[in-house]
Write a structure and sequence with these properties.
Layout (H helix, E strand, L loop, with lengths): L7 E4 L18 H13 L3 E3 L1 H8 L7 E8 L2 H13 L5 E4 L24 H9 L3 E4 L12 H19 L5 E3 L7 H9 L4 E7 L11 E5 L6 H9 L7
Parallel strand pairs: 1-3, 1-8, 2-3, 3-4, 4-5, 6-7, 7-8
Helix pairs in contact: 1-3, 5-6
The structure holds zinc ion.
């Protein structure tokens, strides 16, 4: 079977933020996001959650597909991205920090990164009811390469169990906080029953990719249309 390249897009926050914002690159303005989704649609691509993308990643299905992921669970993703995804009949995975639901990105405080509200429990139900999916992103957004093995186990396994109990859905996809992982984190993710894990390694995935070290394509504030297209359609991001 042909070795199709599958872009998995990585977004964080979908909101227009003032110029003075620290790490403004993490925030994609809604109009830009809308244009990107429209472009995918026009090009004949379907945007999929990680759960729906799995058969494509494993080479069991082929087609023009793109994975869509949002890290951390910002409220603005429900408000600004979900209606656009719904309009194009796309789905997406939002990775949640199980103990930060309804709070903000406090793990960024020491870097003075702007605080944005994270979805509450009710808002996550709303996200799910729109046909979107959720994945795990640990309990506390910890750097998994910097804590004890027991803590890694708790952060990965317990967050999955907590989310499943709370939202009554199977949590099958994981994302390493800060994109940081090692063999221990990778093995524990596998053993916890997850079926995939995404990183911040840049590149497009394909059927040869390790399902627990999936590369992604960062889309940020500065990703203008021509760059967005290059990232999806060309080798621009591969093996950078
Ligand atoms: Zn994160």
């Amino acid at each position: 079977m042909a070795n199709f390249k599958i872009p998995i897009l990585m977004y964080h926050s979908i909101e227009s933020m003032p110029k003075s914002t620290v790490m403004r690159s993490l925030h994609v303005p809604p109009r830009r996001f809308r244009f990107q989704m429209w472009m995918l649609k026009v090009l004949g691509y379907k945007g999929l959650s990680m759960k729906e993308l799995k058969p494509y990643l494993e080479g069991d299905k082929d087609g023009k597909v793109v994975g869509i992921t949002f890290d951390d669970g910002y409220q603005n993703v429900l408000l600004n991205a979900a209606p656009i995804l719904k309009k194009y009949n796309f789905s997406a995975t939002c990775y949640l920090v199980s103990e930060s639901i309804g709070t903000s990105n406090t793990w960024d405080l020491n870097k003075k990164i702007t605080q944005r509200p994270l979805m509450t429990e009710n808002e996550i139900y709303e996200w799910l009811s729109l046909g979107m999916d959720i994945g795990g992103h640990t309990q506390t957004h910890v750097d998994l390469t910097n804590v004890s093995e027991q803590r890694v186990q708790n952060e990965i396994y317990d967050s999955k169990a907590d989310l499943e109990e709370k939202f009554k859905v199977t949590i099958s996809d994981f994302c390493y906080p800060f994109g940081r992982f090692n063999d221990i984190a990778c093995n524990i993710t596998k053993k916890s029953g997850y079926l995939s894990a995404t990183t911040m390694i840049r590149g497009r995935a394909d059927s040869q990719s390790n399902m627990f070290q999936l590369p992604r394509i960062p889309i940020n504030h500065h990703t203008l249309p021509h760059l967005f297209l290059a990232k999806i359609l060309t080798k621009y991001e591969d093996k950078r």
